[in-house]
Amino acid sequence: MGKQPPIKSAVIPAAGLGTRFLPATKAIPKEMLPVVDKPAIQYVVEEAYSAGFSDVLLITGHNKGALVDHFLQAPELEQTLHARGDVGRLRALRELNKLPELHTVRQESARGLGDAVLTAAEHVGDAPFAVLLGDDLIEPSEILWQQMLEIYNEFGGSVLALMEVSDSDVSKYGIAQLSSTTPLRVTDLVEKPEKEKAPSNLAIIGRYILSPEIFSVLRHTSAGKGGEVQLTDAIATLARDERIGGPVHAVIADVRRFDTGDRLSYLKTVVEFATRREDLGREFTEWLKGFTRGLHD
Ligand code: UTP
Question: CB–CB of 45/103 below 8 Å?
Answer without folding.
Answer: no
